[in-house]
Design goal:
This protein has helices spanning about 5-15, 50-60, 75-90, 100-115, 130-140, 160-165, 190-200, 290-295, 300-310, 310-330, 360-365, 395-410, and strands at about 35, 95, 120-125, 150, 175-180, 205-210, 225-230, 245-250, 340, 350-355, 375, 380, 385-390. The longest helix is centred in the C-terminal third of the chain and has 23 residues, at about 310-330. The protein contains twelve helices and 13 strands. It has two domains: about 5-45 and about 310-420, Aspartate Aminotransferase, domain 1, CATH 3.90.1150; about 50-305, Type I PLP-dependent aspartate aminotransferase-like (Major domain) (Aspartate Aminotransferase, domain 2, 3-Layer(aba) Sandwich), CATH 3.40.640. By secondary structure, it is of the alpha/beta class. It is globular, with a radius of gyration of 22 Å. Helix 1 runs antiparallel to helix 12, helix 4 packs across helix 5 and helix 10 packs parallel to helix 12. It starts with a helix and ends in a 15-residue tail after the last helix.
Length: about 425
């Protein structure tokens, strides 16, 4: 028995013992050759979603028409928000599903800066997702450059030192905006510690949960977080462009105001008054009419995550990322692949980045259906990151093993040389 054969057998044994293995069958996985490791860009379609949406289209829209607003649609945002609240350690009245992550980040950042009028500093880190940084830059411009944005530097390109972060916050800082899990490296901030340090300096904290929610346990209330935003199309499997959510701690809700005044955020929207009066509580952060089809698609996927439980999902995620890093050490390290994620599981989210100078062409080879035994879909992040997303609901140990074998073969046999280095529009 060869080393790779015995290793694959071991992976299959791990899958047999997996307490979450039954959830894989609740997702649409029709191609036995496909290994999908792009879950933190777009999760796989749940099996129940097409029929659920079909009912929304044919019955709620097709049969009931406008009457559906009084038989479920008007309350759907809140109903789905309550499910998300359970996943992120929040009260039901502290979360609302609405708009996109970028729009929500803008709304909450604006609200924080307006509340902290005497402070002009904004802090984030240079490894944050670019759109988060763009939103903050746009706010500096919107406030006519009265504010200044500080980007905390990374010493290793992977994570951010708590010491450097804390030293960037002073008595003039209004807002600190960070991603709980960094999108390239999977570096995981200690939310409780960081939030405490930010509050000790008199500033407010806004967390972007997009690369964490559904894979990493989150306790917003336990950490006394001020604000948070997140998307639902990654580990929550809500579909492409599914609506985002925002969180505002209960005691802050009536002290702040959304910069986007829309009729669904009005106190009495169907009174159709000319002058805007914000709704009380979290509803004031609603704006336009909710996108009912994409909103409704969240119900089946959230039910699966809630049924599995965040502690169990995190335990499997940690076991699988450790296993993947072990495979890298055993098979890939000698081929020029380097680890681009923290080795400490307490500082790592649910994806592992492996770096290689030919990362883009390796990704192209992995995705190509005519290369290798399996079609592996990771994603590429500039300049040299192969990001392997682990979604505990459906990722198997054997998937990780087979993907690593494909990565080994592509470099050993220089298969990547068959592919162009010309970048696709979406990588």
């Amino acid at each position: 028995m060869t080393d790779s054969t015995s290793q694959r057998y071991y992976a299959l044994e791990l899958d047999k013992k997996d307490p979450l293995k039954q959830f894989r069958h609740r997702f649409q996985l029709k191609d036995p050759r496909l290994i999908y490791l792009d879950g933190n860009s777009l999760g796989i379609l749940p099996v129940e979603t097409p029929s659920h949406l079909g009912n929304v289209v044919s019955e709620e829209w097709g049969r009931e028409l406008i009457r559906s607003w009084n038989t479920g649609w008007y309350e759907r945002s809140k109903q789905i928000s309550e499910k998300i609240a359970k996943l992120i350690g929040a009260k039901p009245n502290e979360v609302i599903v609405t708009d996109s992550t970028s729009v929500n980040l803008f709304k909450l950042s604006y609200a924080a800066l307006k509340l902290k009028t005497g402070r002009k500093g904004i802090v984030t880190d240079e490894l944050n997702f670019p759109t988060d940084i763009y939103v903050l830059q746009g706010l500096v411009d919107l406030f006519q450059n009265q504010h200044h944005l500080t980007l905390v530097k990374s010493a290793d390109g992977m994570g951010i030192s708590l010491y450097e972060l804390e030293n960037s916050i002073n008595d003039g800082t209004a807002l600190v905006s960070l991603s709980h899990v960094l999108y390239k490296s999977s570096f995981l901030y200690n939310m409780k510690v960081v939030t405490g340090r930010v509050h000790a300096k008199g500033a407010m904290i806004l967390w972007d949960l997009s690369h964490a929610v559904g894979a990493v346990p989150i306790d917003l209330n336990g950490c006394n977080v001020d604000f948070a935003v997140g998307c639902t199309y990654k580990y929550l499997n809500g579909g492409p462009g599914s609506p985002a959510f925002l969180y505002v701690r209960e005691d802050l809700q009536d002290k702040i105001q959304s910069p986007v005044w829309g009729w669904f955020g009005q106190k009495n929207p169907f009174d159709f008054q000319i002058n805007y009066e914000p709704a009380s509580g979290i509803d004031r952060f609603l704006a336009g009419t909710p996108p009912m089809l994409s909103l409704s698609a969240l119900n089946p996927s959230l039910d699966i995550s809630l049924e599995a439980g965040m502690d169990a999902l995190r335990q499997k995620s940690v076991e699988q990322s450790k296993y993947l890093i072990d495979l890298w050490r055993h098979f890939l390290d000698i081929l020029g692949y380097t680890l681009g994620s923290p080795s400490d599981e307490n500082q790592r989210g649910s994806h592992v980045s492996l770096k290689h100078k030919e990362a883009y062409r390796i990704c192209k080879a992995l995705i190509d259906e005519n290369t290798g035994k399996f079609t592996v879909i990771p994603d590429f992040r500039e300049p040299d990151n192969i990001r392997l997303g682990i979604t505990p609901l459906y990722t198997r140990f054997v998937d990780l093993f087979d993907a690593v074998m494909e990565m080994k073969d592509i470099v050993e046999n220089r298969i990547y040389e068959k592919f162009s280095s010309q970048k696709d529009k979406v990588t």
